[in-house]
Amino acid sequence: MLKKGTKLYSIIKGKCPRCHEGSFFKYGFTFNPNKITHLHENCSKCNLKYMIEPSFFYGAMYVNYAITVALSIITFLIGKLIFHLTLLQSFISIIIALLVLAPINLRLSRILWINMFVSYKDLKKKNTK
User: Fold this and answer.
1) Is a pLDDT exceeding 90 seen at residue 29?
2) Model-level pTM greater than 0.70?
3) How far apart, in Å, are the Cα atoms of 6 and each of 16, 110, 119?
């Protein structure tokens, strides 16, 4: 399931969506707000330009929004059904969960967005022909 050539591989490993070899983000996972979403200009292996067009990653805001809504609903349901929290306590737990998971959410939304538009191409097969 998590093998090279699948979208899931590129998303989880943070690799180039075309070759699955080059690193997508400049820095590893970090909570430093200055480094969370920094990308390489191009893939180091296949030279794919990550910023396909100007402001390409503005579309990732829609993905980020969907993830945020899903996390909020899940947090609310867990808080209400399992821990029997009040409405105010549930709201506070949602805010805390969103703040803690913000770096993951930002990175995940960008890698998901580019994977919607770029497909995997096996460079080794292309080079052997």
Assistant:
1) no
2) yes
3) 11, 17, 9
